[in-house]
Amino acid sequence: QVRLVESGGGLVQPGGSLRLSCAASGFTFSNYAMRWYRQAPGKEREFVANIGSSTNYADSVKGRFTISRDNAKNTVFLQMNSLKPEDTAVYYCNVYRRGDYWGQGTQVTVSS
């Protein structure tokens, strides 16, 4: 079965960086686009970045976040630089394969 496991979250000061990872299993990883979403307290889950044949980003993270993948390790990454307090959220990895699959999420808190 499809399994997605995020890691790498934590507490960081404004302007800092974090690198999130999502380890995938249960499907042919290289054949599927992978996405990152986030959900802040009291808000709906929102799209952050996508990597397939190309990469796409939400306007709010363009120029600061970079999505990448290692197909040999079945892992997708999200490098987050110049973090802002408004980036505070639970970050989720997603794949659509006959339906949406989600990981358990990893908490990112940006605060001084």
Set down the secondary structure blueprint.
Layout: E1 3-7, E2 10-12, E3 18-25, E4 34-39, E5 46-51, E6 55-57, E7 65-70, E8 75-80, E9 89-96, E10 100-102, E11 106-110
Parallel strand pairs: 2-11
Antiparallel strand pairs: 1-3, 3-8, 4-5, 4-9, 5-6, 7-8, 9-10, 9-11
Structure, described:
It is a single chain. The chain is mainly β and 112 residues long. Helix content is 0%, strand content 53%. The chain is built from no helices and eleven strands. The chain has strands spanning 3-7, 10-12, 18-25, 34-39, 46-51, 55-57, 65-70, 75-80, 89-96, 100-102, 106-110. The strands form two sheets. Strands 2, 4, 5, 6, 9, 10 and 11 form a seven-stranded mixed beta sheet that branches. A hairpin with a 4-residue loop joins β7 and β8. The N and C termini lie far apart (40 Å).
Count of individual beta strands: 11
SSE order: EEEEEEEEEEE
Protein structure class: mainly beta
Span of the ends, CA to CA: 40 Å
| Helical stretch tally | 0
Helix content bin: under 10%
The whole-angstrom Rg is: 13 Å
Can you tell me the overall shape?
Answer: globular
Q: Which sheet architecture does the biggest sheet show?
A: 7 strands, mixed
Mean pLDDT level: 97
The percent range for strand residues is over 45%
Identify low-pLDDT runs. Answer: none
